[in-house]
Amino acid sequence: MTRRFSSVNVLGDRVEHLQHLLALESSKVERLSAELEDMTTTIAEAKTYERNLEHMVTQLSRQLEQKTKALEIPTPSETNKLEVNGSYKCPLVYLLL
Question: Which residues form a coiled coil (predicted)?
Answer without folding.
Answer: 29-70
